[in-house]
Write a structure and sequence with these properties.
CATH class: Alpha Beta
Number of domains: 1
Radius of gyration: 18 Å
Number of helices: 5
Shape: globular
CATH architecture: 3-Layer(aba) Sandwich
Structural class: alpha/beta
Oligomer: single chain
CATH superfamily: NAD(P)-binding Rossmann-like Domain
Helix content: 40-55%
CATH topology: Rossmann fold
Length: about 140
Amino acid sequence: MGCGRVGARVAGILDHNGHRVTVIDTDSRAFRRLPSDFGGETLIGTGIDEDVLRAAGIEEASAFVAVTNGDNRNIMAAQVARLVFEVPEVICRIYDPVREDTYRRLGLTTICPTTSVSAVVIDHVIGASETLGGARGGGA
């Protein structure tokens, strides 16, 4: 669910590797991001609507990925996929680190770009600082 940069890339890679993929997005223009050779299905709608999810084939799905720009929509759709349709693998992107931690504790597989990117930046800053003998660099 979600055909932004991440959703389109994930869908394209999974499709290329032989998986059956259906992409759900509320805006048909988003499907332009999919690779030209994308062989999966596209569906206009929202992943919090059970009828849309059924039309997408969720009852046979082995995985559901929620990567829209909205935390609430991703969380709700992930919960529906997991609890209503019992999809074995549900992955949910959540930008807010506090929410991400809460929903991870409730059993969702969550990915928080805010936390991940921050950790990489800090690793580079600390690594660069240690490489330079502990010298402090300039601010951001």
